[in-house]
Amino acid sequence: MRRADREITDRGELLRILAECDVCRIALPDGSFPYILPLNFGMEEVDGGLALYFHGAAEGKKYELIEKADTASFEVDRGHKLFFDEKKEMCSMAYESVVGRGRISEITDADEKKRALGLILAHYGRGDFPVNEASAAHTRVLRLDVIEMTGKRRAAK
Fold first, then answer.
1. pTM surpassing 0.85?
2. pLDDT value of residue 2
């Protein structure tokens, strides 16, 4: 990382930022260009690692790409605030972000899908909301097992 003074290495801080974000962008390999899309997500720590969960419609380009390659990158960001330094006649942006990569796969087991959908609901404060089994049957659920992640922060001055 070019600006080591802004790097976040504390796992607890990285997890806090992820927990406070409402959209996770994933990038999938697609020939010469990555295919990136914003998704709702949930997460859990598993055996010392981190798993991110996503849901989607029954078909789409992301599934075609995942069938070809099981790698994905992700990004979340929050706390955006434009600030100005009048003396230096410059402005910048305050933020916190986490980026990483891992292996992505589809969850096909009905009970595991339902559990993952519950984790997504919990991420948005509705862990008490029941997962409709009929809807779950028509929903595809993805799991990204994070291999590495790092964070970055710029505080407002």
1. yes
2. 67
